Amino acid sequence: MMLDFKEFLIIDLIIALIVLVIIFIILGIKLIKTLSRVEKTLDVVDDKLSKTDGMFSVFDKTGSFVNEISDKVIMLITNLIGKFINKKKGNDLDE
Questions:
Q1: What is the dihedral of CA 52, 57, 63, 64, to 10 degrees?
Q2: Residue 69 has what DSSP assignment?
């Protein structure tokens, strides 16, 4: 029994499709494994970032506190200089 060319091509196409389906199944399984590893890694990174959020909030509050104190000190110095200049101008106008 001899296969003619048409039947041979059909058998080749069917074999090629079966091989492609097997390759896609293997690639899909590897992709699922990779995505699960990536998800675990992202969970670990998220946990570490949530732990450092507290530290950054402390830095933020400390920076705000230092900023408020420096603003008050600068305001106090500015007011003292302004009073000194106003007194000097008042003395110059009286003379």
A1: 170
A2: H
**In angstroms, rounded to a whole number, what is the distance separating the alpha carbons of residues 89 and 91?**
5
Closest C-alpha to 70, from 60, 82, 58, 62: 62
Half-sphere exposure of 13 (CA within 13 A, CB side): 6
Compute the distance between CA of residue 72 and CA of residue 93 in angstroms, rounded to an integer: 31
Query: pTM of whole model > 0.70?
Result: no
Comparing 71 with 52, the larger pLDDT belongs to: 71
What are the backbone angles phi and psi of residue 2, rounded to the nearest 5°? Answer: -110, 135
Q: What phi and psi values does residue 4 have, to the nearest 5 degrees?
A: -85, 175
